Amino acid sequence: MRRFVAGDAEMRSPPFSRVWRLRQNGRVLAIARRSVRARASTVDLPDGTTWVVAPASWGTVEVLEGDVPIVTATRVNPLGRYWELTGSNFNYELRARSMLRRRWTIGQGGAPIAELRGGVLSFNRLVIQADLPVPVEAIMAAWHLIVRAWEAASQAVRPALLDYRIDEEAT
Fold first, then answer.
1. In a domain, 99, yes or no
2. How many structural domains are present in the chain?
């Protein structure tokens, strides 16, 4: 089943929480749970599908379904201001318009198709405005890179998928 965000959506996390919800039109499209220790996030979808978003190597982040990468994000700019997001049916550019103000765009061929805006004073909100449908897996890769930039840019070993689950009581 293909999942897309088109129009306005928002990712939000309560203060001091590691749980984020992607919502659009009152519906929860995904619930993401961050793990600081593993430098990864799990993403649960309403249909029961689970993804893991984690660094795969230096300058590379993957969204995995099981042990299969469905999105690969590759850092193009050494400062992390430009990433390529590649999936089986898309190839996007994630570019920072302002890292200080946390403004990013997802585009193709230099033309933006979605804007992502973080809160100026809060790191617990990411507003998404997509002019064209963007796959949810691309949104989750972008969220990981924007909200968890220091982790995404670091070199880390992909977590063992069978051993990795976030304890919901710790969130």
1. yes
2. 1
